[in-house]
Amino acid sequence: MLSVIIPCYNEETLVKKSFVSIFKALKYSKISSYEILFIDDGSVDKSLSIVKKLKKQNKKIKILRNKKNFGVGYNFFKGISKSKGKYLIQIPADNSHPFKEISKIISLKNQNYDIVTTFYSNNTERSFFRNLFTLIYTPFLNLIYGTAFPYFNGITLYRSRLLKKLDFKNSSFSYQIEIFVFLYHRYNLKIKIIPTILKDRKKGSKAFRVKNSFIVIVSVIKIFIKSIYYRMLNFFYKRKN
Question: What is the pTM assigned to this prediction?
Answer without folding.
Answer: 0.92
